[in-house]
Amino acid sequence: MTAPVAHLDLPGFSFGATPVLGPLSLTVERGETLALTGPSGIGKSTLLRILAGLYPAKGKRDVIGRIAFVFQEPTLLRWRSAQRNIEIVSKVTSTKAIAALEEVGLAAYANRFPDQLSLGQQRRLALARAFACDPDLMLLDEPFVSLDATAADEMMTLFAALRARRDMASVLVTHAPEEARRLSTRILTLSGRPARITADVPVHAEA
Fold this sequence. Notes:
Layout: E1 6-10, E2 13-15, E3 18-21, E4 24-28, E5 33-37, H1 44-52, E6 60-63, E7 67-70, H2 82-90, H3 94-103, H4 119-132, E8 137-141, H5 149-164, E9 169-173, H6 177-183, E10 186-191, E11 196-202
Parallel strand pairs: 5-9, 5-10, 7-8, 8-9
Antiparallel strand pairs: 1-4, 1-6, 2-3, 10-11
């Protein structure tokens, strides 16, 4: 049996004197997409950042291989072209960067800067940048937020297609139940103050 891509045992987490997360444990297996759901402000993004190692926390955190993170905002380098955004951040060759742009339908925009792209194109670029490094674990913090229904549907279809071509695990933060059901293999629900995992439900991805 292969080791999980990620495992976290957290005794709790606070911002100063304010408890945010209570004791919890989660494991992410290769090939699995885990959705983190719950009310806004419950601590989903905080948990994702702890899993990424962006927030130091007590407890045990084990991640095997490379991590890619897709934030709520595209977080692109505005002074670099689309191609250079991928090359610099993902540390890949120009050939690999162009291939990543082709996968998301942005090959013709390789020399454009982020401010010359629509929000949907910026989100496609952020997704291409994350996939370009061939991550073992991809973490996504509401990556389809602020898009209209058509654009969000296209992005979810694109993510599912790119994920299917790779042997990776992923964790998706979302407040939308239909998004969680469509893209995940398991849904974890956070609730309470401080937040804990109160439900762990297997699902079948639709995309």
